[in-house]
Design goal:
With 160 residues, this protein is mainly α. The chain has helices at residues 12-17, 29-44, 49-74, 84-93, 101-117, 122-128, 131-159.
Length: 160
């Protein structure tokens, strides 16, 4: 069970790291955080690819800082409620996402699968890299793996 600290409602850095409060969900905070990332993605899904990629770089760097700071403040490395990393990981999965809610669902499911199962190198990064970068890196890798699957499937369907 997720025990979210009260500081997430008072400290803007913690609030952001906890995915605008979505990481305070008592069960499955990572899944709720990933779901909460979708409405924000809808706001910038229409950006041109260079702007979208620039936004990802900024949210990744910012995420390293807010996740590291929140983790340090709480005294817990990668508290289960810290879900900004899920936001960025999902947004990576959604790079140049084909249109349609089916692709959104597939990307969501693949991202969650890779984030939960943590195949190599995701599991390695999760165990070996510390701090804010460590919190972010496993989800970034899960995002890229899910992105590769989504785009690969889209390519195969295009060939048919």
């Amino acid at each position: 069970m997720n025990h979210a600290p009260a500081s997430i409602w008072r400290n803007p850095i913690h609030f952001l790291a906890f995915g605008l409060g979505s990481g305070a969900a008592p069960k499955a905070p990572g899944t709720f955080g990933t779901l909460a990332a979708i409405p924000l993605w809808l706001l910038f899904a229409e950006l041109s690819l260079p702007y979208y990629l620039a936004l990802l770089v900024v949210t990744f760097i910012f995420g390293c800082w807010i996740c590291g700071r929140t983790s340090s403040d709480l005294g817990v490395h990668d508290h289960g409620g810290i879900v900004w990393d899920e936001f960025v990981g999902l947004w990576i999965t959604f790079i140049a996402l084909p249109s349609g809610w089916g692709w959104v669902l597939l990307g969501f499911l693949l991202f969650r699968l890779f984030d939960i199962v943590k195949p190599w190198p995701i599991g390695w990064a999760d165990k070996q890299v510390s701090g804010g970068l460590g919190i972010m890196l496993d989800d970034v890798l899960a995002g890229f793996m899910a992105l590769a699957c989504v785009q690969g499937l889209n390519y195969l369907l295009y060939l048919v």
